[in-house]
């Protein structure tokens, strides 16, 4: 896609710090560096979000994630954990509409990155949970 910043990055039209590349994916350091080593993995094929993936693309991307995650852990042995994040849609904080996965190394609870999930379990009854699961299950192909 002509105006896509990530397509321009993978095509070397925009300078970047590549950490991995093969025929299916491209991985580079996120310019924001939420934590040291914050890496983005993109499919080379332009797709906007997870909803445009086919099975092969999903497999191609997902099989590279552990490989790059292990490289980060080896490069930074002080790393205590990692967040792996994929945002889909503006409301879900996707800001670049070329699908990408963030690998965010975690060095401790005070490393200036946090995610907060509230406990909303009291908002749904068992019947509502059962109904929701059935609705989704009926759509899985």
TrEMBL record:
Domain named HIT: residues: 5-115
Motif position, Histidine triad motif: 98-102
Active site annotation, chain numbering: 100
CDD domains according to UniProt: HINT_subgroup (cd01277)
Entry superkingdom: Bacteria
Signal sequence region: none
Pfam families tied to this protein: HIT
UniProt GO MF annotations: catalytic activity
Example of a GO biological process term: nucleotide metabolic process
Protein name per its UniProtKB record: HIT family protein
